[in-house]
Design brief:
The chain is of the alpha+beta class. Helix content is 47%, strand content 14%. Strand 7 (223-227) and strand 8 form a beta hairpin.
């Protein structure tokens, strides 16, 4: 019956899509296992017994590990097997297997041009800083520093001078959890106040006297909480301040600024943190204060103590699920497939009619031909076998066509259902400016505003013009309250330009966020001092020692909220009901259509029987 064929065709389509989804996920789960790494950080490297390791001797790396007081660095140095200065010798050992070379990202990229059988272990345990060297206490240091910042701000690609240090091993398996950061000290609950202030320190002296500092909440660098009518600050910047106070023998007090701004040049004067230093109201700014050329002209910066990539934060776009079944192919391909089904059915019917001499019921024969071709398209067989040799040749070619088509369809289908969840609407600032669906914003009166407002890069200028002319965003496009931007991002179709640290903090509240891949600027946080301060070099030397010992990274891991989303994303993706809803819609429509045809068939049969009975009665 025609209704049975409609129902069975829908079931064939359902089973094909279901089998494609299952096979795709099964293959993905088996192939991902090939990328599991034998270790994911220095601590695991030192603890395992299979791999040996080495680094370039008589270099920065040797000094870093040899003189460090970090436990994992000490273990690495004690277990070092090779300190050859010949990088090629390390490459040969890596390619021979079971050898890890500790080097920077640029070496790995160079080696990859000769061999693809290499992997970079995920942990970034040190960010190497390359800089221009001058004689000690040179009068030209600030001149060269100013020029360096302007070149950095005008750069069109990410600087390769800041290299991520990781172990390089031969490609084997990818996996292993990253080393969890240390737990936050104590069980104190941090409360974020609405009126956030910015971090300052005012140093009256560096030799045992009382000092005054000013602070603004900026997790994980500064946390602010109230206790017993007093305000207590903590975080990475506070740990750094306490360590500097211990080393340089000074004390301090804390206050909060009046305007609560980071620092912007408005009407010829500086606001916020920068303004406090310019007006000599503070002797030291200790916060995640971004280094910029315009700021460097009016204040001094120490060496950076933290680096973070800038990017674009958006809500994770959801894939269009109503068209899941047709998404693997373009509409032109679907039209060609439909035409192929019709033409193959016509040719099959013509060949069978011309080659067979047996009488055939035309209605049944047409239905059988269509169902036979459709069943082959669904990679299923049927009870009908072509009787003519020409028909069998035609069906053999059709089966080969459908087999290749099914393989292509199943692969693209599972890709569209898994990768489609994370497909980003844009991948760069240029694409953000060119599209019309998303609005964007940034933190006003901050480093971000100055960067985009004063830049001569075309895409930066376009971003700032879009913020100024935003009709639906209004003043919220450059609001100084980060919480406002988070709400707008979660509401959808809003892009927040910020740094990766903010993105990681937001992930602790919502996993429905994405960080657009393009890293268009490497933000550097440093300590600020008054212009031409005699203490700049003193603080730089101490901060450099603290950085090399890994204390900043240790503090960051301790105060950073643990990311629950990373563990969730590592799990194998399971196709949910929403992704397959279009398939169930097709099945439902097919059942309804089959029911309608069944009613029509019953009515047709009833009338036919009545007509036959009338004819017999008349006769």
């Amino acid at each position: 019956m025609a209704s049975s064929r409609i129902l069975l065709s829908a079931w064939l389509l359902f089973s094909v899509v279901l089998a494609a989804t299952y096979s795709g996920n099964l293959i993905a789960s088996m192939t991902d296992g090939r990328q599991k790494q034998p270790f994911s950080n220095l601590a695991e490297l030192a603890q395992q017994d299979t791999y040996r390791w080495g680094l370039v001797g008589r270099s920065f790396l040797e000094t870093l590990f040899k003189d460090s007081n970090r436990s994992e660095f000490q273990e690495i140095w004690q277990g070092i097997e090779s300190t050859s200065s010949d990088v090629d010798s390390h490459l040969r050992r890596v390619l021979n297997g079971q050898y890890a070379f500790i080097g920077e990202d640029i070496i790995f990229q160079t080696w990859r041009s000769n061999s693809c059988d290499l992997q970079f272990v995920k942990e970034q345990f040190y960010l190497q800083q390359a800089a221009v060297g001058l004689p000690n206490n040179s009068a030209n240091t600030k001149i060269f520093s100013n020029d360096k910042w302007v070149q950095l701000e005008r750069a069109t690609i990410r600087s390769t001078h800041d290299e991520e240090m990781r172990p390089i091993v031969r490609a084997g398996s990818l996996g292993g959890d990253q080393l969890d950061g240390a737990k936050k000290a104590g069980d104190v609950q941090m409360e974020i106040a609405k009126d956030d202030a910015i971090s300052f320190v005012k140093l009256l002296s560096v030799s045992g006297t009382r000092c005054t500092r000013e602070l603004h909440e900026s997790p994980p660098f500064v946390f602010r909480r109230e206790m017993n009518d007093s305000i207590i600050f903590s975080g990475v910047s506070i740990d750094l301040l306490n360590e500097l106070a211990r080393r340089l023998n000074f004390s301090y007090t804390t206050v909060e600024p009046e305007d609560g701004e980071w620092g912007a040049h408005v009407n010829g004067t500086w606001t916020g943190l920068i303004g406090m230093l310019v007006e000599k109201k503070a002797d030291l700014v200790l916060a995640p204060l971004a280094v910029m050329k315009s700021r460097e002209e009016v204040i001094d910066f120490t060496v950076p103590y933290f680096y973070t990539n800038m990017g674009i934060i958006i809500q994770t776009p959801s894939a269009t699920t109503l068209l899941t079944l047709v998404s693997p192919f373009q509409y032109m391909v679907l039209i060609c497939i439909a035409i192929s089904v019709v033409l193959t059915t016509v040719f099959l019917l013509f060949m069978e009619m011309m080659s067979s001499n047996r009488p055939v019921d035309n209605l049944r024969y047409y239905g059988d031909a269509v169902f036979h071709v459709f069943a082959a398209l669904m990679s299923k067989g049927s009870n009908s076998i072509p009787s003519a040799v020409s028909s069998r040749i035609l069906m053999s070619a059709w089966l080969l066509f459908t087999m290749i088509l099914a393989a292509t369809y199943s692969g693209n289908l599972i890709a569209s259902m898994t990768d489609g969840r994370q497909k980003q609407p844009f991948s760069s600032l240029e694409e953000l400016v060119q599209q019309d669906n998303y609005r964007w914003g940034l933190v006003g009166r901050s480093f971000f505003e100055t960067l985009f407002k004063d830049s001569n890069r075309s895409e930066f200028q376009a971003i700032w013009q879009g913020i100024e002319s935003s009709s639906d965003g209004g003043p919220e496009a450059d609001n100084s309250d980060i919480a406002v931007h988070l709400r707008r991002v979660l509401n959808g179709r809003y892009a927040f330009i910020s740094d990766e640290t903010i993105f990681k903090i937001w992930l602790s509240d919502s996993c429905d966020l994405q960080f657009v891949k393009e890293q268009f600027f490497l933000q550097q946080a440093a300590v600020g001092l008054p212009n031409n301060s005699a203490n700049t070099k003193i603080f730089s030397n101490e901060i450099l020692q603290i950085y090399e010992k890994g204390l900043v990274r240790h503090w960051y891991d301790r105060w950073m909220t643990k990311n629950q989303c990373e563990e969730q994303r590592r799990r194998p993706y399971r196709v949910n009901l929403l992704a397959l809803q279009s398939l169930f819609y097709v099945c439902g429509v097919s059942v309804v259509l089959a029911g309608i045809v069944l009613v029509a068939e019953i009515m047709y049969s009833t009338r036919r029987c009545k007509g036959s009975s009338t004819a017999h009665a008349t006769g």
